[in-house]
Queue: 4 jobs
Job 1
Amino acid sequence: MSDAIETHQTELRHFAPSSEFVARANVSDSSLHDAGDADSETYWAGQARELLHWDTEWSKVLDWDPPNAKWFVDGTLNVTYNCLDRHIESGHGSQVAFFWEGEPGDERAITYSQLLEDVSRCANALKELGVQRGDRVAIYMGMVPELTVAMLACARIGAAHSVVFGGFSSDSLRGRINDAEAKIVITCDGAWRRGGVVALKDIVDEALLDTPTIEKCIVLRRTDHGNEMTDGRDIWWHDLVDRQSPECIPEPMDAEQLLFILYTSGTTAKPKGIMHTTGGYLTGVTSTFRSIFDIHPDEDVYWCTADCGWVTGHSYIVYGPLANRATSVLYEGTPDYPDKDRFWAIVEKYAVTILYTAPTAIRTFMKWGVEYPGAHDLTSLRLLGSVGEPINPEAWIWYHDVIGGSKTPIVDTWWQTETGAVMISPLPGLTTLKPGSATFAMPGIGVDVVGDDGRHVGIPGGGYLVLTKPWPSMLRGVWGDPERFQETYWSRFPGLYFAGDGARYDDEGYMWLLGRVDDVMLVSGHNISTAEVESALVDHHAVAEAAVVGVHDPTTGQAISAFVVLKNDHEPSKALEKELRIHVGNLIGAIARPKSILFTDDLPKTRSGKIMRRLLRNVADDETLGDTTTLADPGVVARIKDRYLSVDAEDDEVDDLEENQK
Ligand code: WT7
């Protein structure tokens, strides 16, 4: 049991690690923190050497020419050798890498040996198609084992993958393929979703109508619902991959070889292709996975419920766990199919010991009720994790008590697509927890909270979250746009990485994350840019102008609220509202569909024409309006507010869960 110091306010409760947990924890003293504080470069070099196999040792740990970093200069290694071959060589080939659970209930246990053979076959297939080191391969699949195989196959031969989440639209997929100039796309005929089929290949076909760089499309048969194969372009996975040799030599790659591009939303309509490279990224995810998730590879069964389409899946389903020789669960479907206890049935079935999920999912489970987890034996769980957005203390306590049986530590991990690996988190055998606080910086990571002047705010104090030192898994830039890289992350505070999040220190120096401070919304823990949704809305022929804000939502953290000005010849209607939501879904993906749309005849703007989203947020959150003196027409907000209050926000739970779990 945790030694909770009971008080009436959950925020003030402290949870020290139990002596039982401490006794077997990978990290139970401050030596890692001390080493990281003493000299972060030496610390990271130590981690890289201790945890990974290098074919050539680096000549220099860090080459830092702000904002451009090179880690482990001249070092070479192969990511998949570290994730697969070396475990087999040390006698663990028959250990399960993935217990895969298909949504319809089919299952596969894939050992490290099998995974290596599958990866090698797929790598050979890519080579046969002419894929070379440095080429980009787009991957658009459901959560099937072949998705991880495809990612690792790219890594084996030095091609960069660009995984596009299967919930994104054909337009989004096309944009990402074209931005990265991908040569190959790998997909599935369809994906299972709540007993139905999402026709992924049809979406790909539409995307490929205008993707000049794509030469081939590899299609895995999963749902068998029948689809057109385009001659000369489309190839079945089973025709191409299965006949390949199961051996493919893991060639050493330069530490700075591009490992992947992953797109994330920023403050403009165009997503940013975040670049991660080989040696530093693998060092970051391997080291953090070991210390945060306290992995004991011979005993633990770990399950991260994210999708590989997000960075969480890259770092903590694929690379971090495999490099640590973990046994993981991989699940294809949603948490409510066939019933709302599916997650707990999976925990029980595989005796999951470590579970990593998102606050939005936890709040959904709270809403569904304790009877669902209550129907299953969850006593195997010994550690829980949270990621994606701040976890409110109430959800933290529920997760701890109902899922964790009041005995499991919770690691609340703060990080971003850009950081590659976790930057702020408790270490479960060391850190005394406070529900809702992500606690402290990871060893070797420099974190601070600064004011507008870029100076440390003091303790207690609130301001902007920054990273003060380069770190191995840091993004190496925005694909094709070095100015945007500099501008977005490195120009606000000279010499500091600006994360875009607000944060505060409490009086004990614990860190509390406060959400985004820029025009990025966090819906179910995922970045969506206001600009991207606005541009999708104005793309519709009836729309003259649109403004979008993220408003507080009890389940998804933030929900998208849109304010739309129609063109003269169009009238507001429920039908049009629905049409607009579908339109946004078609252009970006279901996750970006506004939850509410309010038609208005004007938007609040400054005299220079800038939309004041803060005021719209206040309207939608029903707060006092604050200062409206800089508005060109101060009456406009009052009119919008009147109208907003007279409309019942329609509460159809649009595929709530689809957004939740991904
Ligand atoms: C943004 C990054 C990291 C993988 C999933 C999201 C928010 C993430 C936490 C947390 C408070 C969090 C931040 C961050 N965020 N984890 N534990 N506590 N906020 O990756 O899509 O790149 O989003 O998610 O606002 O900036 P992403």
Job 2
Amino acid sequence: MRYFLAIIGGGPAGYTAAEKASKAGKDVVLFEQNALGGTCLNVGCIPTKSLLYGAKQYFNATHAQKYGVTAENVAFDFGAMQKRKTIVVRKLVAGIKQRLNNEHCTVVSGKAVVISHQPSVVSLQCNGETYEAENLMICTGSTNFVPPIPGIKDNPAVWDSTDALAAAELPKSIIIVGGGVIGMEFATLYHELGVPVTVIEAMPTILPNLDPEVVQILLEKYKKANINILTSTKVESLDGGKVTANGEVYEAEKVLVSVGRRANLLGLEALDDIELERGAIKVDEFCKTNLPNVYACGDVTGKIMLAHVASRQAEVAVGRMLKEIPLQRIAYNAIPSVVYTNPEIASVGITEAQAESMSIPVEVKKLPMTFSGRFMAENEGETGLCKMIVDAKNHSVLGVHCIGNPCSEFISAASFAVRNGYTVPEFRQVVFPHPTVSEILHEIL
Ligand code: NAD
């Protein structure tokens, strides 16, 4: 049987593509070597958020005096948190399986390898069987990058994020190398559960891609909470849990290395003429590669390594394959992102610094989150910040950057404005429910 579409990888890109193409009546085969759901569901977004939620419950219970609540003998059971995390993941993975079954998509468990590619026919092998398809979609994701630092390889004290998520017990202390998104989310988890944390970041700031004013608020709060954050600090070598950085030695039971991820190209060796860009598969606006009928979506394209980008890329790519009219496109200028620290950081669109580097004259609007009544009611002692970047010429909203709980839950309203090119007067006409923290987006206009 020749399939319309073969998909390698069952993460958010792969399963979204499979569902959409199957729904359109096409024969689809999807190969997954581990569990459906990919990094996001199994060893990324969902397990971290499950554990972070448990940690937040404990932390809030032990810091509730400011709301007039005193709780005694508050304790947590990390094993129970891990168990709950596993159940959440299992249920979501089963849900994906069910959805693909409902659409009669063929799911093959195993490692697929491309064996040949000609225009209009790709051959793959998996578990000793050969499969042919008219179109190929590569959704193989990414893997943790291991930097070439002496003493890092085969060091039993070193964890990557997958090891940290699987650990049965909390470490007694931890050094986190890399103060990016993964590093700061794990710093939050461990800190809230009482583990001493040191973060070592090579750049002059943690979360270097975010708005510096927003990051500064987090930095000040975390430093006050005794999270040891070292910036402009280069790790030179490791010896067990001893980390030498900028000539000083720091020591912890475990060292979590979170310095980025790299596109996973294993199993694609037969596509030796596929074009790469900075180690990832180069794609056009419809996620087409330079090879006829070969598409790539998600982390393997190295664009923005976020699950929601992967699934949107898959929708656009399948739309192109199906020759939908009109063809959909991805609004890369309006991709929201969230860092699940406490407080959360959420942003969409360009920052002030990016506007400057693109020579776009902008007006920057700023308000502390305390301008929202609901924020005041629920965030004792916090000020937060909301920044809006507005085009100085046509007054359209180009970016929004917030810190304060629960900004992850309303950043989509800002995405909607950026995606649709709303001007300030247009956005002002949107009614926000009162009292919600989302009203900050109205107050700031
Ligand atoms: P990242 O790129 O966000 O951060 C890596 C950090 O490590 C950077 O700040 C970098 O300057 C620093 N670094 C690099 N080499 C270093 C060294 N030798 N010593 C010290 N610091 C060093 O990467 P990540 O945190 O590993 O996350 C990987 C990907 O996963 C990212 O694309 C991220 O967006 C995604 N992710 C997203 C979420 C979310 O959306 N909430 C959560 C986790 C991961």
Job 3
Amino acid sequence: MIIDILTLFPEMFDGPFSHSILKRAQLKGHVIINLHNIRDWSVNKHKTVDDYPYGGGAGMVMMVEPVVRCIEELQSKTAYDEVIYLSPDGELLNQKITNHLSTFNNLLILCGHYKGIDERIRTHFITREISIGDYVLSGGELAAMILTDAIVRIIPGVLNDETSALSDSFQDNMLSPPVYTRPYDFRGLTVPDVLLSGNDKEIVKWKYEQSVERTKARRPGMMGERREG
Ligand code: ADE
């Protein structure tokens, strides 16, 4: 998969993309992540990328020219499955959407800043708008990192133990069961004995029951969304 990210702050991505699973996924060739500084496509010598909004109002707006020139140059080399804009007014991100996006070959992700981007970019060049939650961030960069992480970790082969992505919370519209590791006894707090029983059937049953209980208690609406069969 190739993910091209358009941003005014490419350095923000350095940390999250150069550690742990995202780092390994890139090293193993499962994903190529390219960061593009929108400022490089600015049309004037001051490298301007934002301007005052028509009609007045607070804040600046990201200009249409640099963003569109950047998108079009990338599109001349790559056919994108989706051109995504991260925005609080997009569709709310969930596991179903990340699963779907992880099946694509080429994604372009645009990060907005300031008061947003010129509406003409949204209506004519963006194919999908995604929000990571009902709150407003200072820009789309953190949201793009979250979206990228959620997509890349489920590309087959990225996780060592492939089943560990399948057993994530949300994969079956259920939360994950609790997990424990050594020591067995921490200040009198012990691990449920069934996990040490060696009885695989009982362990699977216990985990399932714990998932159901936890989902009902914490996310009661979620189990209604479970697929039939
Ligand atoms: N940009 C600003 N806030 C955002 C949010 N909640 N989700 C995605 N992009 C954003």
Job 4
Amino acid sequence: MSSHGPAEPIFSSKSAPLRGEALVPGDKSISHRALILGALSVGETRITGLLEGQDVLDTGKAMRAFGAEVARSDTGEWLVHGVGVGGFAEPSQVIDCGNAGTGVRLIMGAMATSPITATFTGDASLNARPMGRITEPLKLFGTIATGRSGGRLPLTLQGAKNPTPVRYTTPMPSAQVKSAVLLAGLNAPGETVVIEQEATRDHTERMLAGFGAEISTETTDAGRVITLKGQPELLGQRITVPRDPSSAAFPVAGALLVEGSEVFVPGIGQNPTRNGIFTTLVEMGADISFENERVEGGEPVADLRVRFGPLKGVEVPPERAPSMIDEYPILAVLAATAQGVTVMRGIKEMRVKECDRIDAMARGLEACGVQVEEGEDYLIVHGMGRVPGGASCKTHLDHRIAMSFLCLGMAAENPVGIDDCKPIETSFPDFIPLMTRLGASFAAEGSS
Ligand code: S3P
């Protein structure tokens, strides 16, 4: 929600070995899509394992505002009764997507080809993020967008009355842009085509197919060409949301940071468009085994067993960036405690996340005594084995920056503080109790 309330600073101190099982929450990307596609379907969608973080709850609220029924059952299953493609009603209130870039961008796509008007806003972080990357392609369908400078929120979209299908090459590797165009294409007649030069997470394509859309992906010299046939009848589905690899990265990192740790992290999504962090960690020498590999709800899943062991610095191939774009903050923490230098290039997109994540990590790591180099699209971390710590880091309303520095404190020589732990609610509401159960030591500032 936009009203964030007073900040809650906490700090993290040297941790006992982490041990036990980490049941991380459902995948955030898949959760948003399940609610949105459920709302665009006919009949009932039943979702198990939905992430009940603020970002996703805000998307659920938005789907209600567009006319869908969204409810949580006593057993924790989420039920959506959709309105069908083109069936969105005009919301009577401003749609507040809180901190959620994925939420607002996908919802804008989903309503852009319906003859209704909606106004979107968010918190200070979301209202600072670029939306032109979404509104520009939506205009090609005939949608009218009126926002602040740079197309920023608050922003009003007038959906296209007679949408035309679109052929669009995404100018940056972004699953949100790709998905917004595909969702808009649902209510345009004919074929909407999205071309992406680098493969980004493909949950939208997988789930659209699962709901009954005609969608195909072809790999060509120009990149991935995704073709969607417009105006399908989507039918409500049963969806099992796998546990989020981006959230799993934190207990996995904890186990790799704290000597003597062994942590079991079951049911983690291993979609190849998302699992770059695990490939990188294995290259750094991490002891991770991938057990019981299987497919659940159309997504590959594995149980991870992680044991502490020394890590070495690596050069991450830039072409891997889209498959681990949200994991560079925690990778930077692990790189600081590794031996040798870790080079992360091709990560310009990090600058337009919930905050400028290259800057946030560079400043926080420096404050903790780590040598870093940064440029527009790179971050280089000089590993030092033992990190001095002893600083308070700014999180800029960014959940992943908050969790990353709390993990650093688990291994640093001196406690590491963060100025606000509340943003963690957006993606991993159980992070603090879960990590504490494993052995981490967090305390509110002012306590001892
Ligand atoms: C997401 C795509 C990524 C990612 C975000 C979730 C999605 O953003 O950073 O956390 O669910 O589509 P971009 O599409 O801007 O790269």
